[in-house]
UniProtKB/TrEMBL annotation:
InterPro entries: Pept_tRNA_hydro (IPR001328), Pept_tRNA_hydro_CS (IPR018171), Pept_tRNA_hydro_sf (IPR036416). It comes from the Bacteria. Keywords: Cytoplasm, Hydrolase, RNA-binding, tRNA-binding. One of its GO terms (cellular component) is cytoplasm. The active site is at 22 (proton acceptor). The record marks 97 as: Stabilizes the basic form of H active site to accept a proton. The record marks 12 as: Discriminates between blocked and unblocked aminoacyl-tRNA. This is Peptidyl-tRNA hydrolase. Pfam families: Pept_tRNA_hydro. It is an enzyme of class 3 (hydrolase). The lineage of its organism: Bacteria, Bacillati, Actinomycetota, Actinomycetes, Micrococcales. Its EC number is 3.1.1.29. The gene is pth. One of its GO terms (molecular function) is peptidyl-tRNA hydrolase activity.
Length: 195
C-alpha cells in the first residue's frame, strides 16, 4: 500500500538566512526536490512551500515542505500540512540542524527530547507528540566564546563549505533510506564510523 510522508526541512525564511547553519534542513529538502526535478511552491493550506512527489516511481508519496515561518514557530505550518494531507506524526520526517553532533555527521532517531532545539520543540507541541522521525544534521558547536544562538545564524565557514554539498547529499540519502528501508537500516548506514 502506498503511504504518504511529510518531509519538512527546518530553517528561517528569506535570503538573510538561507545559507546559514540553522537552515541546513531546508537545504536538504531542496536537494530532495532537485533529485526529482521538483520546485517547491507556496501552499494555500499552510504557511509553507511544498512539492508533492514520490520516493521513486510507484513507491511512497512524498510531500516536501519548507515553512515560511521562523524556526521557533515551525509547529503551526507542520501540523497544518500533516492535517491537510492526513499524515500521522510517525510519518512526519523533520530534518534539522544539530549543535550537539559534529559537523559532517548525520544521526537519525524517532521521538525523545528536543535537545534545546526550538523548532523541534514547537513541532512536538503542535503535533501533540514528540514521536516523529528526525534526521539530525550535525553543525557542531562554536569554538571559543561565541554564543550558539549567533553561531547557528552564521553562514557555514570556509573550512566547512567544501564538504557541505556532501553533507547535504548524505542527509538527503538518509531521508530516502529512512522512508524506503526503515529507521534501523538508515541508522546502521549513517551511524557507522566513516573511513
Amino acid at each position: 500500500m502506498v503511504q504518504s510522508w511529510l518531509v519538512v526541512g527546518l530553517g528561517n525564511p528569506g535570503p538573510r538566512y538561507e545559507a546559514t547553519r540553522h537552515n541546513v534542513g531546508q537545504m536538504v529538502v531542496d536537494e530532495l526536490a532537485r533529485r526529482r526535478s521538483e520546485v517547491l511552491k507556496s501552499a494555500t493550506k499552510a504557511n509553507a512551500r511544498v512539492a508533492e512527489t514520490w520516493l521513486r516511481p510507484g513507491a511512497d508519496k512524498l510531500v516536501l515542505a519548507k515553512s515560511n515561518s521562523f524556526m521557533n514557530t515551525s509547529g503551526g505550518p507542520v501540523s497544518a500540512l500533516a492535517a491537510y494531507y492526513g499524515i500521522a506524526p510517525e510519518r512526519v520526517v523533520v530534518v534539522h540542524d544539530e549543535l550537539d553532533i559534529p559537523f559532517d555527521t548525520i544521526k537519525l532517531k524517532v521521538g525523545g527530547g528536543h535537545g534545546g532545539h526550538n523548532g523541534v520543540r514547537d513541532i512536538a507541541k503542535a503535533l501533540g507528540t514528540a514521536d516523529f522521525p528526525r534526521v539530525r544534521v550535525g553543525i557542531g558547536r562554536p569554538v571559543g566564546r561565541q554564543d550558539p544562538a549567533d553561531w547557528v545564524l552564521d553562514p557555514f565557514g570556509a573550512a566547512e563549505r567544501p564538504n557541505l554539498p556532501i553533507l547535504i547529499s548524505d542527509a538527503a540519502d538518509a531521508v530516502e533510506e529512512l522512508i524506503g528501508d526503515g529507521l534501523l537500516a538508515a541508522q546502521q548506514r549513517h551511524h557507522a564510523p566513516r573511513d
